[in-house]
């Protein structure tokens, strides 16, 4: 697993912005910015849809007030699914980032094999990144939701 004070690995992601699919690198998303990124096992899944993403949507302005430039939600899903999920959750201010091939998730060592649930997925976590360097990493134990929620991360800023 990636260590705090490490540089994030360089990969390509996809997301939608203003109806257009964007391909962006780690450097483009994180360089020169303070970013909160949280990852979920899957879009449209119960804890992810009922609690995890909504907490960041509701608290988005508080993150900005604390000096965060960007809030990102990552999942090992495709960009179309992430875009539809974001729209269904009123997450217009959050980048709904697709790690479709799990390249980033594997590179940081936070993948989980789920079998029939969708194969390789991300573990649930939240991180604070400053100019591409990992500052905080809160990883949930399997089937838990205690340390990666919006309120916990806000308290750390």
UniProtKB/TrEMBL annotation:
Alphabetized, the UniProt keywords read: Antioxidant, Oxidoreductase, Peroxidase, Redox-active center
What PROSITE patterns does UniProt report for this protein, alphabetically?
THIOREDOXIN_2
The molecule here is called Glutathione-dependent peroxiredoxin
What EC number(s) are associated with this protein in UniProt?
Answer: 1.11.1.27
Return the broad EC class. Answer: oxidoreductase
What is the protein's known function?
A: Thiol-specific peroxidase that catalyzes the reduction of hydrogen peroxide and organic hydroperoxides to water and alcohols, respectively. Plays a role in cell protection against oxidative stress by detoxifying peroxides.
Q: Which residues form the Thioredoxin domain?
A: 2-157
* Origin superkingdom: Bacteria
- Tell me the protein family, please: Belongs to the peroxiredoxin family. Prx5 subfamily.
Keyword Metal-binding appears in the UniProt entry:
no
């Amino acid at each position: 697993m990636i260590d705090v004070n490490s540089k994030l690995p360089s990969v390509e992601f996809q997301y939608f912005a203003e109806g257009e699919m964007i391909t962006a690198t780690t450097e483009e998303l994180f360089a020169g910015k303070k970013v909160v990124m949280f990852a979920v096992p899957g879009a449209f899944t119960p804890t992810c849809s009922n609690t995890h993403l909504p907490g960041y949507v509701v608290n988005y302005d508080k993150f900005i007030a604390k000096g965060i430039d960007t809030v990102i939600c990552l999942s090992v899903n495709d960009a179309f699914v992430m875009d539809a999920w974001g729209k269904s959750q009123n997450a217009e201010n959050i980048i709904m980032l697709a790690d479709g091939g799990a390249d980033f998730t594997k590179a940081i060592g936070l993948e989980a094999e789920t079998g029939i649930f969708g194969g390789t997925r991300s573990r649930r976590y939240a991180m604070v990144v400053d100019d591409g360097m990992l500052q905080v990493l809160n990883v949930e134990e399997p089937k838990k939701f205690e340390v990666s929620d919006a309120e916990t991360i806000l308290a750390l800023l």
